[in-house]
Design brief:
The structure holds 2 protein chains of 2 kinds. Chain A has 3 domains: 113 residues, Butyryl-Coa Dehydrogenase, subunit A, domain 1 (Orthogonal Bundle); 107 residues, Butyryl-CoA Dehydrogenase, subunit A, domain 2; 154 residues, Butyryl-CoA Dehydrogenase, subunit A, domain 3, CATH 1.20.140. Helices cover 53% and strands 15% of the residues of chain A. Chain A is built from 10 helices and 10 strands. In chain A, helix 4 runs antiparallel to helix 5 and helix 8 packs antiparallel against helix 10. Chain B has a single domain, classed as 3-Layer(aba) Sandwich (Rossmann fold), CATH 3.40.50. Chain B has 6 helices and 11 strands. In chain B, the strands form 2 sheets. A 9-stranded mixed β-sheet of chain B has the order 9-8-7-10-6-1-4-5-11, with helices on both faces. Chain B has a two-stranded antiparallel sheet with strand order 2-3. In chain B, strand 4, helix 2 and strand 5 form a beta-alpha-beta unit. In chain B, helix 2 runs antiparallel to helix 5 and helix 3 crosses helix 4. Chain B starts with a strand and ends with a helix. Classes of the chains: A alpha+beta, B alpha/beta.
Chain lengths: 386, 260
């Protein structure tokens, strides 16, 4: 595998994440998937290894890395189990809006426990009737003396119920539409904040996906993130930074599937020869490897661009997520095909990878929304040249 | 509590090659790892430090590249590391090695010395106990649990074939540990970064005040006569039936073989 000019520290992050994935995640992934069990033990191992620190600035207990560092760790974990990886990356998704928009006090309070891995975070935007059309959210935040009162339901929240720190988008002024949303930091255990059903999913089943229910939940005014009305800016800027993470997750899933398919093709004999000697299989493997490398290059480039401080990142970030997740779906489907009947069986790891891959085309913005973003940016660029 | 953990870098292979001339281990071209049993020793040192405070110092004797093993221990959380390395130490047997290590341990200062039960290359299991003799302190080998350290004493469980014994001894002391004692932690990123930058002092025979005639080939009375893989024994025969019949058959066979 090319080393992509990674620094010594970045390689250290990648290698340690890989070691944990191999030694601690692989042996339990099938069981976690089967039982739909939240991987607390692995979360603790990741915390002890300092992996939750990689994206957090040093002054808040982090190691001062950025998007690329987070992507490297996410990719390696995804190679073994995407359910574990999304739990890890989901905490960074919840912490990113605090990093980007939090005031000094909020950052001092909430980032260090996320960096140490002592607490997990979650990001809550989606609602039953507001998915791709995020502006349709109906959770409200009514201004009261000293703060806000939240009412409504959030749906499909990664790390829901397990996380301690939630960034929640709610409408402070419905008449203003998208400009009437605001972001709040809400802690687990606060009165009026409860959890609904835990979803039973097709893939990433080790991860927790749950409803958040707000019933007259008081949030003090110091927990407003950014200013009133900035809720969607908070959400969009956050996704711009975290979408390459979904790309990295996709690359990891695809790489894991290729690793399995290659090893199997070499060992499986039919017609008296290993099936890897057949050109039909060889070409599939070649296409899988090529697509993965292209996806990885795009994801790392997007991550590096973000880390360089570039402001215009929506397009490249959406491209990385779109391309890599489509690659993950194709590659895992081909991996199952190479395994043949065995691939369809739950005793082998590739069917799980195919199930896990599907969500990468859906969450943090469906791939259809990604294309909208990319096309919108293209047209904007054209207009600005005229 | 000052804890010294003695570790060894061993070749990362299940097949140890022996130089037919010198009868010593062939190390060239094989990547080194920390002897797996020593990983348990490092982990136990770190856990005791977490329970009772103090410092974990890691010591190894070996060629310059053995420094990698020390960095691994530092990445896991050890406070200090020292490499005992000197051409004069080459060819040391377990007696000379344990003597040299004991001199370095004295210089480091210690309340407790922890070793793995044996190294997976030489497999002698002698260096730990011999060190205790050189140091003149009590030791327990095959420790599977440290129950507690209090009032200048350490209470441990020693693994036996049919269970375990609980033993107590005054500090300073030495223990060697078995794999049942713990599960070694993985290194952390901060630990790895710290380990990468750490300055590891290299001590010579002179630095530790050792008698040059007691180290290296000169100080090593052990002669390895032959190193070989024992031949696999042919499978036995199982006699079945009533005890009286079987006994008769057995006597018959032994007589036929001329054994009785």
């Amino acid at each position: 595998m090319p080393n992509y000019f990674l620094t010594e520290e970045q390689m250290m992050i990648r290698d340690l994440a890989r070691q944990i994935a191999e030694e601690k995640v692989k042996p339990v992934r099938a069981e976690l998937d089967e039982k739909e069990e939240f991987p607390w033990e692995i979360v603790r191992i990741l915390a002890q290894a300092d992996l939750f620190r990689v994206w957090v600035p040093e002054e808040y207990g982090g190691l001062g890395g950025g998007t690329l560092e987070l992507c490297l760790a996410t990719e390696e974990l995804s190679r073994a189990c995407a359910g574990v990886a999304v739990t890890y990356a989901g905490s960074a998704l919840g912490g990113t809006p605090i990093l980007l928009f939090g005031n000094e006090e909020q950052k001092r309070k909430y980032l260090p426990p996320l960096a140490s891995g002592e607490k997990l975070a979650a990001f809550a935007l989606t609602e039953p009737d507001a998915g791709s059309d995020a502006a349709a959210i109906s959770t409200t935040a009514k201004k009261v003396d000293g703060g806000y009162v939240l009412n409504g339901t959030k749906q499909w929240i990664t790390n829901g119920g397990e996380a301690e720190i939630y960034v929640v988008i709610a409408m402070t002024d419905k008449t203003k539409g998208a400009r009437g949303a605001s972001a709040f930091i809400v802690e687990k255990g606060w009165e009026g904040f409860g959890f609904g059903k835990k979803e039973r999913k097709m893939g990433i089943r080790a991860s927790a996906t749950r409803e958040l229910i707000f019933q007259d939940c008081f949030v003090p005014k110091e927990n407003l993130l950014g200013r009133e009305g900035m809720g969607f800016i908070v959400a969009m800027r956050t996704f711009d930074r975290t979408r390459p993470g979904i790309g990295a997750q996709s690359v990891g899933i695809a790489q894991g599937a290729l690793d399995e398919a290659l090893a199997y093709a070499h060992q499986r004999h039919q017609f008296g020869r290993p099936i890897s000697s057949f050109q039909a299989i060889q070409h599939m493997l070649a296409d899988m490897a090529t697509q993965i490398e292209a996806a990885r290059a795009l994801v790392y480039y997007a991550a590096r661009l973000i880390d360089s401080g570039e402001k215009d990142i929506s397009k490249i970030s959406a491209m990385a997520k779109l391309f890599a997740s489509d690659v993950a779906m194709r590659v895992t489907t081909d991996a199952v095909q190479i395994f043949g009947g065995y691939g369809y069986m739950r005793e082998y790891p590739v069917e799980k990878m195919m199930r896990d891959a599907k969500i990468t085309q859906i969450y943090e913005g469906t791939n259809q929304i990604m294309r909208n973003i990319i096309a919108g940016e293209l047209i904007k660029e054209l207009a600005s040249r005229r | 509590m000052d804890i010294v953990v003695c570790i060894k870098q061993v070749p990362e292979t299940t097949e140890v090659k022996i130089d037919p001339q010198t009868k010593t281990l062939v190390r060239e071209g094989i990547p080194g790892i920390v002897n797996p049993f020593d990983m348990y020793a490092i982990e136990e040192g770190l856990r005791l430090k977490e329970r009772y405070g103090g410092k974990v110092k890691v010591l190894t004797m070996g060629p310059p590249q053995a420094e990698d093993a020390l960095r691994e221990a530092l990445a896991m959380g050890a406070d200090e590391a020292v490499l005992l390395s000197d051409k004069a130490l080459a060819g040391s047997d377990t007696l000379a090695t344990s003597y040299a290590l004991s001199m370095a341990v004295r210089k480091l200062g210690y309340d407790l010395v922890i070793c793995g039960k044996q190294a997976i290359d030489g497999d002698t299991a002698q260096v730990g106990p011999e060190m205790a003799e050189h140091l003149g302190v009590p030791f327990v080998a095959w420790v599977r649990k440290v129950e507690e350290v209090s009032d200048g004493k350490i209470k441990v469980q020693r693994l036996m074939d049919d269970g375990y014994e609980v033993l107590e001894m005054p500090l300073p002391a030495l223990i060697t540990v078995v794999k049942e004692i713990n599960e070694p932690r993985l290194p952390s990123l901060r630990g790895k970064m710290r380990a990468r930058k750490a300055q590891i002092p290299v001590w010579t025979v002179e630095d530790i005040g050792a008698d040059p005639s007691r180290v290296g080939l000169e100080g090593s009375p052990t002669q390895v006569v032959r190193v070989f893989t024992p031949e696999r024994r042919a499978g036995g025969e199982i006699l079945q039936g009533e005890p009286e019949e079987v006994a008769d058959k057995l006597v018959e066979k032994l007589e036929a073989m001329g054994v009785i």
